[in-house]
Amino acid sequence: MTGPLEAIAATLDAEGGLVAAAVGPPPVGTPTPHGDVAAAGPGRAPEYAQIVEAVREGHLTHAAEWTDNPVRPQPRIVTTDDPDLALLVGDRLYALGLARLAELGDLDAVAVLADTIVLGAQAHATGAEDLAEAAWAAGAQAVAQGPREAWTQARDSARAGDPSGASALRDAARQLARTGANAP
Looking at the record, which segments are called Disordered (predicted)? Predict the structure, then answer.
């Protein structure tokens, strides 16, 4: 069975060109927790795993270019050492995921992922790796369950620079996960 990252790499490879030359398959067994969470939501298609992981990979690719922080998660399918090409590939990954969501008509999920990208960029710009990871955990749950009040409040808190923003996002992720676990 092809996992989300393998499918994304195959899609980009089939497009050809510079982007295709800058990606490869992920290491065997690479986890895709954010995509798995998003695809497990009520009424969500398995394609949501690919969508969320494409956007996540774009985020990781852009974040990797900002610093050599060894703690920061690294891209899993982007293989180029050329920083300009890596940014282009990151942009293509963002576009791939968001366009697929728009094709599905899930504008709420487009908005959630756009907010998640912004929160992640804001966090990386200030060296707040914990905030970036919390944003992705909550964002994946909000895609799965819908952007409920827990997501909106935590997002707004983090966006405003509240020192407890990462904690609020982690709490929102847990609350949204419980919502999904209690769904019929």
Answer: 147-184
Is residue 19 a contact partner of residue 88, using CB atoms and an 8 Å limit? yes
* Residue where the block lists tokens 């270019």: 65
pLDDT tens digits along 7-17: 999 999 999 99
The string of pLDDT tens digits covering residues 133-148 is 999 999 999 999 998 9
Q: What is the mean pLDDT of residues 168-173?
A: 98
SS3 assignment for the chain: CCCHHHHHHHHHHHHCHHHHHCECCCCCCCCCHHHHHHHCCCCCCCHHHHHHHHHHHHHHHHHHHHCCCCCCCCCCCECCCCHHHHHHHHHHHHHHHHHHHHHHCCHHHHHHHHHHHHHHHHHHHCCCHHHHHHHHHHHHHHHHHCCCHHHHHHHHHHHCCCCCHHHHHHHHHHHHHHHHHCCC
What is the C-alpha to C-alpha distance for residues 103 and 116, in angstroms, rounded to an integer? 20
User: What are the boundaries of each domain within the chain?
Assistant: 4-181
For the segment 36-72, what is each residue's pLDDT rounded down to a tens digit? 999 999 888 889 999 999 999 999 998 886 556 666 6
Chain position carrying tokens 């494409």: 54
CA distance 44 to 23: 27
